[in-house]
Structure formats: structure tokens, C-alpha cells
Design brief:
3 strands, 105 residues, three-stranded antiparallel sheet, alpha+beta
């Protein structure tokens, strides 16, 4: 007897598009809040224009942290993604699917 549950499928991850390998990274909300916090350094600029260096140093530090975080990620080719259906899919019914990501680095 055949089951209606689709077979398990595994594949190596890959970067999408021309810039996927370079720009396939999203900044976390914490990183965005750090950039917004750097905007607070622009308030003293209205009163003391010679303090521009504080905002520039802060933004450079945040940018270095973001680039360091992106650099430490595993390459897409080192990851394997597996899709597994728990129950047989049905039209108009919720279906439970397990996704497994393995890092081979």
C-alpha cells in the first residue's frame, strides 16, 4: 500500500541571484537600533559642529560589528536543508512540515 505522504527531500543550500553571496544577509533589529542610537549623536551637532566625529566613530563601529557578524556566518554550500511532511497534505487543511537545517562547517 502506498502512502500519500511525500518523500523526504534534502538539498544543499545555495545563494540566490547575482548578489546573493555578497548581499544575502539581513541586519538584525538590534543592529538597526544601534544605528538609530547613533543618530542621537547628531543632536550635539546642532550646538557644537566640531563633534561630528562622535557620530562617525559610532556608525563605523556599528558597521564593523555588522560586517564581522556577516563574515562569521557559514557559507550556503556548507548547509543542508531537509523537508519532511509529518502527515499527508490535504486541500484546505493545515499540514505539518518539518524543516531541518544542518551546518556542515
Amino acid at each position: 500500500m502506498q502512502t500519500l505522504i511525500p518523500q523526504e527531500i534534502s538539498a544543499k543550500a545555495r545563494a540566490l541571484g547575482r548578489w546573493g553571496g555578497v548581499a544575502g544577509y539581513g541586519v538584525t533589529p538590534r543592529g538597526l537600533w544601534l544605528v538609530v542610537a547613533g543618530l542621537m549623536f547628531s543632536v550635539p551637532e546642532f550646538f557644537h559642529p566640531h563633534r561630528l566625529w562622535m557620530m562617525l566613530v559610532w556608525d563605523a563601529l556599528v558597521a564593523a560589528l555588522i560586517v564581522g557578524d556577516a563574515w562569521s556566518l557559514a557559507a550556503p554550500g556548507e548547509m543542508t536543508v531537509t523537508r519532511r511532511f509529518v502527515h499527508s497534505p490535504g486541500i484546505g487543511q493545515p499540514t505539518e512540515i518539518d524543516l531541518e537545517v544542518r551546518n556542515g562547517s
